[in-house]
Amino acid sequence: MSATAPLTMAASAALDEETARAELYGLLAQLYYSAPPPELLAPLRVAVTEAPSAGGLLEEPWQQLVGAARAQGDAAIAAEFERLFGGVGKPEVFLYASHHLSGFLNEKPLARLRSDLDALGLARSEAMPETEDHLAYLCEAMRYLIAGDDMAVCNLATQRDFFAAHLQPWVPALCDGLEAHPAAAFYGALARFTRAFVAVEAQGFDLLE
């Protein structure tokens, strides 16, 4: 759902666009879940930064993200992740929907999310330590709803409803806070890209109304 894409397009172009959306959600999931390993950062640093159509809403924030990855080494980015989201006790930046929507962890937003995930046939693996309202898990759920094979749930209507209920209400505010954090260099750039991506997604879903 590119902001610059025409409303009518060839089926192959639409397929390519959906693949790109799924890949971007997958990338966000990895970058927010844990300190990115070298095998994730290496291809990001050599990624193409020019959009097929100049002036797309994602072009500049994507260029900034790739530039931020190139400007820092693997160890510096890992240390930044731990400074912002890890450590012992309270993190400096929370990546959980419940915290941003209710002010507390494990509150009603998480319960609603679990109900919706259950209806979609999705559940958190017991091996995963974070709760389902972690941004990485929500991005991974969106990736599945775009790229999965079960057309009963993997369709635009379900994507729109899940996005509107569980990402759109709080992710822009998270990005504002993360970008303003003095220690966020790479993750500040990631916040700018995430905000722009969420805005493009919201615009695309509005066209379905």
From TrEMBL:
InterPro entries: DMSO/NO3_reduct_chaperone, TorD-like_sf, TorD/DmsD_chaperones. Keywords: Chaperone. It comes from the Bacteria. It comes from Acidovorax soli. It holds the Pfam family Nitrate_red_del. This is TorA maturation chaperone TorD.
